[in-house]
Design goal:
404 residues; alpha/beta; 8-stranded mixed β-sheet; 38% helix
């Protein structure tokens, strides 16, 4: 029996998302989520998608789950109950989402003690994410030390950016001493969507230039030339770039000094303001685009202004990345807002006919879970809506590495 299954783990500070996939046919066998780890009201939701167990639908456990070890053991128990346990000889690898790979990790990497130590060393660059990623890796290694554990890094896809793009124009010695540079994030999504867009166009990925707009509560743009990222909107952290649900995006750095000197805010207070209380939430009190659109449609001025600011930033990046790429074959929208908010797509592309962009308004307004083109037939540049699949991308990269 050839081992072809990959368990994908996305470990957060108090949660674990997981999917079990069979790479023989790229199918999902089971999906689930453990949330509120460490609380009395911990919750595990598990859904088998194949075999007799799938007829029963989702299963739910509610009760205390003390830590990530207990969480993963509970996940293993659910999978075992469906005949797909971690001891299965069909399990080829465990793929871990790791947010920050720094400059060292530019491709998927089999995890050993040295790699794990380096991921720990990168915690200062991603203090909210890498610690939880490390914990998930440690627990998974303890449960199945005999199979490859593979780290797939959010930053890796953007490592092909030219040095002049990755560098900030500050003192070079200071930048090098403190690892200050642009790394980019959402890399697994940008990688998947850029390839899927090329497939949608019926062209080899090497022949396609695409602007990918990953628009969720976190949002980022990338310029992808022939499958390689040459520019992205997020920087050293996920704060730079587009207006997001709770993050400000691009900001004059002197705002920080002003808030400290004149407003008397501490560094931690400014950090919280810009990351958790800004963006759509800061401007109108809602970070859910559905609510922003509803309120704007009812004439709410704060929501209208927040939406206009959000869309304006999108237009700026589409224009800038058109200049960076020189030739654009497609603009691809993905993630929760990008896939579902047709009003965002319409507003972002309105007035960009000179860039070759035009929508088929009826196609754009239609809902569908499938990748699709929503551009007008006469448009020079295709507009695509491509549901992202970061778990499949992680599984694909992990499986390719262990079967080389």
């Amino acid at each position: 029996m050839t081992a072809s299954r990959v368990l994908v783990l996305n470990s957060g500070s108090s949660s674990v998302k997981y999917q079990l996939l069979d790479m023989a046919d790229r199918s999902r066998l089971a999906v689930g989520l453990v949330e509120r780890i460490g609380e009395e009201t911990s919750r595990l939701v598990h859904e088998p998608l194949t075999g007799p167990a799938s007829a029963g639908g989702k299963r739910e456990q509610v009760g205390p789950i003390a830590d990530h070890e207990a969480a993963l053991k509970a996940v293993a128990g659910e999978l075992a109950a469906d005949g797909m346990g971690l001891d299965s000889p069909e399990l080829a690898a465990v793929g871990h989402r790791v947010v920050h790979g720094g400059t060292r990790f530019t491709r998927p990497t089999v995890i050993d003690d040295e790699v794990l130590a380096e991921i720990r060393n990168l915690i200062p660059l991603a203090p909210l994410h890498n610690p939880a990623n490390v914990t998930g890796i440690e627990v998974a290694r303890s449960l199945r030390a005999d199979i490859p554990q593979v780290a797939v890094f959010d930053t890796a896809f953007h490592s092909t950016m030219p040095e002049y793009v990755a560098r900030y124009a500050i003192d070079a010695q200071v930048a090098d001493a403190y690892s200050v540079r642009r790394y980019g994030f959402h890399g697994t999504s940008h990688a998947y969507v850029s390839r899927a867009t090329a497939a949608l166009l019926g062209k080899p990925v090497e022949d396609v230039n695409v602007i990918v707009l990953h628009l969720g509560n976190g949002a980022s743009a990338s310029a992808v030339r022939g499958g390689l990222c040459v520019e992205t909107s997020m920087g050293m952290t996920p704060l730079e770039g587009l207006v997001m649900g709770t993050r400000s995006g691009d900001l004059d750095p002197a705002v920080v000094f002003h808030l400290a000197r004149v407003g008397g805010l501490s560094v931690d207070e400014i950090d919280s303001l810009l990351n958790k209380k800004s963006g759509l939430l800061g401007m109108c009190g809602d970070n859910d685009m559905r609510e922003v659109l509803r309120r704007a449609g009812e004439g709410d001025e704060a929501a209208r202004l927040a939406f206009a600011t959000y869309v304006h930033r999108l237009k700026k990046y589409i224009g800038a990345y058109s200049a960076v790429l020189g030739r654009v074959d497609a603009v691809a929208f993905t993630a929760g807002v990008g896939e579902n908010a047709h009003q965002v797509r319409e507003a972002a592309l309105d007035g960009l006919a000179e860039l070759g962009l035009a929508l088929d308004l009826e196609a754009n307004a239609a809902r569908s879970p499938q990748p699709r083109l929503v551009s007008a037939d006469y448009a020079r540049v295709a507009v695509a809506v491509v549901p992202t699949d970061e778990e499949l991308e992680i599984a694909t990269q992990a499986y390719a590495l262990v079967t080389e």
